[in-house]
Amino acid sequence: MERSVYIAPSILSADFARLGEDVHRAEAAGADLIHVDVMDGHFVPNITLGPLVVRAVRRVTSLPLCVHLMISTPERYLGAFVEAGAAYLTVHPEATIHLHRTLQEIRAHGVRAGVALNPATGEEALSYVLPLVDLVLVMTVNPGFGGQVFLPEMLPKIRRVRKMLDEANSSARIAVDGGIAPDTVGAVVAAGADTLVAGSAIFNVEEGVERAVQNLRRAAVSS
Ligand code: DX5
Ligand code: ZN
Questions:
Q1: Is 37 a catalytic residue?
Q2: Cα 187 from Cα 209, distance rounded (Å)
Q3: Residues at Cβ < 5 Å from ligand 2 ion
Q4: Pocket probe mutation, ligand 1, options 7, 10, 38, max atoms within 8 Å of Cβ
Q5: Annotated active-site residue in 32, 37, 40, 194
Q6: How does pLDDT run along the chain (223 residues), one tens digit per residue?
Q7: How far apart are CA 177 and CA 10, in angstroms?
Q8: Does 177 contact ligand 1 (Cβ within 6 A)?
Q9: Residues 6+ apart with CB under 8 A from 186
Q10: DSSP letter string over 51-116?
């Protein structure tokens, strides 16, 4: 099934002192979603932001906010992030004992549910929850930091997830997160990804946010 590739700038690499301006730039450049990385210093070795910042970002953009919860027991905070304005909540299977229930709860809040697969986590983690999944986030780096090197060994996993979703007639999107840049976009899109999360390749490049988004889109189209 052909579908357009979404670009989801990750604000982890934005200038937090000028967050509103950076989000505006990303929206003006034609981004489709804003990806928000929430880290608790427990599930991953870094601490970032919480519902307050999500609420602030919500006020400055009309783009859907895709909140990537890299936190232990994310079920404790689903309501807070929904109230803050999340459109998608993505959790890691290792972080929640009852993944099925957590996905049900996300859906019950009226938002979309995502499952993130760490590099060492296989696609089997999705097997029994697929009907509850709107987004599969394939981590192409170990979560915790922006600016890491893309792991090409994740390409077969993207292909397997694509096959799994197609066989189940699922319309869930496949996002890739980590090291996504013009030189890695071709391979991930060819493998079946349709949503590109990129932080440093959008906010930390000399050519600026607009050009960076265009370059990613061009790389996706020509792949
Ligand atoms: C990493 C985060 C990513 C991060 C990606 O743990 O989940 O969303 O912002 O950054 P880049 O695109 O710089 O690899
Ligand atoms: Zn992320």
A1: yes
A2: 22
A3: 37, 68, 177
A4: 10
A5: 37
A6: 567 999 999 999 999 999 999 999 999 999 999 999 999 999 999 999 999 999 999 999 999 999 999 999 999 999 999 999 999 999 999 999 999 999 999 999 999 999 999 999 999 999 999 999 999 999 999 999 999 999 999 999 999 999 999 999 999 999 999 999 999 999 999 999 999 999 999 999 999 999 999 999 999 998 7
A7: 9
A8: yes
A9: 219, 220, 222, 223
A10: HHHHHHHHHH--SPEEEEEESSSGGGSHHHHHHHT-SEEEE-GGG-S-HHHHHHHHHHTTSEEEEE
Nearest to 221 by CA among 1, 7, 33: 7
Q: What is the pTM of this model?
A: 0.98
For the record, the structure tokens of 208 come out as: 């600026």
177 neighbors 10 (Cβ within 8 angstroms):
yes
Q: Which residues pair with 219 in a beta bridge?
A: none
Tokens matching residue 98:
């009852």
Q: Which residue has the tokens 């689903």?
A: 78
C-alpha span between 62 and 33 (Å, rounded):
9
Instruction: Determine whether 183 is an active site residue.
Output: no
